Amino acid sequence: MASNLALPPLPDNFKPVGHLLKTASEHESRDAVVTYWARLAALQSAMVIDKKSKEAKAVLIPLMDWLEKEKKVPYFRE
User: What is the reported pTM?
Assistant: First the structure.
């Protein structure tokens, strides 16, 4: 089961990826794989928008840490 992720409020320029993060949160207790891929897509899109500002890093770093940790969970192994 996916672990909860607490992110700070999204900066205004990250609003286009908000729907992906919302989808991930909605599926967190139902489908860990959907949660993982939605958050990965959000991270990739957000990094195209902004990866250098302090506000962006406050969102991106915890998201990257979460993805790295979840990638090691057995349901992602074949």
Answer: 0.87
